[in-house]
Each structure stands twice: as structure tokens, then as C-alpha cells.
């Protein structure tokens, strides 16, 4: 129960960060919002865990660390950019296709075997995405493609995390990802920099700390409970996103978005269920 509570708190903080990013995007360039967020992330990492700097020197795979950092900052920037044109709940709904993408990518990147049931669930999940974004209709906005790109980048980063889990220190991995994101955005931000007001600067720094705190709580959650238990609760973030969207922006998802989101969630939960069964079968197989 402690793990579940920590995960729910993390999803609340993630939705809070998304709402802040949507507000900030109305006043500052996306790259600048991301740079200040990553700056706060690195500061918080070093302040909360000074040993992370020492651990980061001893990483086994620099290539995987760099790739993971690039994928995470790409995912963050695409999602923040999409939020300027999409409602929070709509973006969150499409974003939850990432667990299905992780299952797909586990085949070529990790050599895992995915059965017909999970492939069917993946297909149904993508049908839900089409219902949410409705290409070819007046409800479609190209920003939805940014969310899909963000989800794909997140999925690649997640696969790389799995690949490195047994050999890399989690503190080093977090610091590498934060530092690479900060470095890449530092190269771009001078070309788009707009002097922020004190209010926007404070809000942007707060967003960085809130997002970082969410990452920290998620790590703690997985220390107290298994992934198969926690994964379904991550979908509670859809409720937070809907609530924040209504509270701050006066938007609510329409029926088609709710239907598509329900299909995405159902397919994701079924995929998690099948992966849990497969993991149990592997444990029971004789050595």
C-alpha cells in the first residue's frame, strides 16, 4: 500500500507539472521551459543525492546512457510542445500508448517474444488512439503526432532502462539523463531565449522541482511494490489530468476522447496482465 500511495502521489505531481508547462508555454518558448526544468532537475539531483556524481563516473555503458538521455529530453520537449495545442486529458490519453510501444519494442531491442494476445491488445490500443485524435476530421490536431512521438521516445528510453538495470546504478542513470538533457537544451536555448518575468521564472523552477519530486517518488514506489502491482495505478494520471484541465483551462474530454481513452487503458491493462502471466511462467520453468 505504501508503494501504491507513492505512485499515486507521483502521478499527481506529473499532472501538476504538465499543467504548469501548459501555462508556461503561453509565455515562454518550449526550449526555455525545458531548459529551466532540467536545470532545476540537476540541482535537485545533486542536492538530494551527492553520491550520484561519484556513481555517474563508473557507468558501464556510456552509449546507452547518452541514448537514454536524448530520448527522455526528446520525449519531454515533444510533450510540452503538444500541450500548447491540446487539452491535458487528450494529451495524457494519447500518451498512455507508451506501454504498448514498450511491448512492441521489447521484441527487436530485448529479444522478447510477444504472443498473439498481446499483439491484439496493442492493435486495439492503437485503435483507441485513432478514436482520440480522429485523423481526417475537424477534431484532429497535428499536435497529437507530437504526443505519439513523445510516447515513442519514452518507450525507447524505458527499454534502455531495462537493458541497463542489472549493471548500472540508478542514481548515475538519473544524473546522466538529467545532465544530457540540460546540455542539449543549453545548446539550443540561446537562440530562443526570452527574458522571463519573476512570476514565470518562479513557476518554471517550481515545475522543475515538482517533476523531479515526481520522479523521486516513482523510484521509491517501485522499491516498495512490484511493477505488476503498480502499473495499473499509473492510469490514475488521466483523472488528475482531467481535473487540472477543467480547473485551470475549463476543458473536459468529449465522449469520443473518453471512449478512446477507455480503450487505450483497457488494452494497456490487458497487456500488463499478460506480461505478468508470462513472467510467472518463466519463473516456474525448470532451469
Write a compact overview of the structure shown.
This protein has helices at residues 2-24, 30-48, 51-56, 62-83, 88-95, 98-110, 116-133, 143-164, 170-188, 198-224, 227-230, 237-249, 255-284.
Can you lay out the helices and strands and say which pair or pack?
Blueprint lengths: L1 H23 L5 H19 L2 H6 L5 H22 L4 H8 L2 H13 L5 H18 L9 H22 L5 H19 L9 H27 L2 H4 L6 H13 L5 H30 L3
Question: What is the rounded Rg?
Answer: 19 Å
Q: How many structural domains does the protein architecture include?
A: 1
Unreliable runs, pLDDT <50, ≥5 residues? none
Shape: globular
Total number of helices: 13
Mean pLDDT: 85
The residue fraction in helices comes out at over 70%
Would you give an account of this structure?
The mean pLDDT is about 85. The chain contains 13 helices and no strands. Helix content is about 80%, strand content about 0%. It starts with a helix and ends with a helix. It has one domain. Helix 2 (about 30-50) packs across helix 10 (about 200-225), helix 4 (about 60-85) packs across helix 9 (about 170-190) and helix 5 packs antiparallel against helix 12 (about 235-250). It has helices at about 1-25, 30-50, 50-55, 60-85, 90-95, 100-110, 115-135, 145-165, 170-190, 200-225, 225-230, 235-250, 255-285. The chain is mostly helical and about 290 residues long.
Descriptors:
287 residues, mainly alpha
Amino acid at each position: 500500500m505504501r508503494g501504491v500511495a507513492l505512485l499515486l502521489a507521483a502521478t499527481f505531481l506529473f499532472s501538476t507539472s504538465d499543467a504548469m508547462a501548459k501555462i508556461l508555454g503561453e509565455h515562454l518558448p518550449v526550449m526555455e521551459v525545458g531548459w529551466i526544468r532540467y536545470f532545476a532537475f540537476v540541482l535537485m539531483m545533486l542536492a538530494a543525492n551527492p553520491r550520484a556524481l561519484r556513481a555517474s563516473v563508473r557507468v558501464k555503458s556510456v552509449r546507452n546512457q547518452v541514448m537514454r538521455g536524448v530520448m527522455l529530453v526528446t520525449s519531454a520537449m515533444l510533450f510540452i510542445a503538444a500541450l500548447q495545442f491540446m487539452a491535458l486529458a487528450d494529451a495524457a490519453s494519447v500518451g498512455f500508448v507508451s506501454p504498448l510501444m514498450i511491448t512492441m519494442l521489447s521484441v527487436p531491442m530485448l529479444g522478447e517474444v510477444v504472443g498473439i494476445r498481446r499483439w491484439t491488445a496493442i492493435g486495439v490500443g492503437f485503435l483507441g488512439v485513432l478514436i482520440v485524435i480522429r485523423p481526417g476530421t475537424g477534431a484532429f490536431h497535428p499536435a497529437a503526432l507530437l504526443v505519439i512521438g513523445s510516447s515513442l521516445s519514452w518507450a525507447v528510453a524505458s527499454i534502455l532502462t531495462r537493458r541497463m538495470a542489472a549493471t548500472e546504478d540508478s542514481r548515475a542513470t538519473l544524473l546522466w539523463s538529467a545532465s544530457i538533457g540540460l546540455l542539449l537544451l543549453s545548446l539550443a536555448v540561446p537562440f530562443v531565449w526570452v527574458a522571463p518575468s519573476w512570476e514565470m521564472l518562479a513557476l518554471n523552477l517550481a515545475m522543475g522541482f515538482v517533476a523531479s519530486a515526481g520522479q523521486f517518488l516513482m523510484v521509491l514506489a517501485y522499491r516498495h511494490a512490484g511493477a505488476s502491482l503498480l502499473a495499473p495505478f499509473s492510469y490514475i494520471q488521466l483523472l488528475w489530468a482531467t481535473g487540472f484541465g477543467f480547473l485551470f483551462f475549463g476543458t473536459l474530454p468529449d465522449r469520443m476522447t473518453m471512449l478512446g481513452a477507455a480503450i487505450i487503458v483497457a488494452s494497456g491493462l490487458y497487456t500488463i496482465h499478460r506480461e505478468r502471466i508470462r513472467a510467472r511462467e518463466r519463473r516456474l520453468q525448470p532451469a
